[in-house]
Design a protein that fits this description.
Layout lengths: L1 H18 L4 E2 H10 L5 H13 L3 E6 L2 E6 L1 H10 L5 H23 E7 L5 E9 L2 E10 L2 H26 L1
Length: 171
Amino acid sequence: MLQDSLTINKLIVLYMLNRVSFPITIAQISDFILERDYMNFLTLQQVISELTEANMVSSKTVRNRTHLSITEEGRSTLNFFDNRVSDAIKEDVNNYFLEKEYSLRNEVSVLGNYYKSTLGEYEAHLTVKEKGVRLVDITMSVPTEEIAAAICDNWQKKNQEVYQFLVRQLF
């Protein structure tokens, strides 16, 4: 029985990842799963770990956030076992994405990351992606890690304003 519920939990996560055309973060999945008591936090961590190890989910970490995407192997598995996910759960997932898709997409489409360059300064790398296409890609060299972190944080809050400014100035 425990193994069966673990399988259902994996299928729920795969269904969520298959439902969107962009990577979503573990935090975004957690918000949905934990809010509806489908599983607890530790079980969710185990599910994600096992799906990643089985190559059904790919993960990429960007500044303390892990982005997950379903792989072809995950899609095949989900297609084979899709009938094991109840219609009620599918409806919950679908309604969640109908309601929040724009904000979820915006959250993972706007990326700000920084790293120490070979010259000893820090580089803040800022991007905005839509459907896998980079709309904006900016790299700024700054003297300190604190400034680079602040730029990345502000990018999350002000990216639309910056993008609009660039368009007005350059077009």
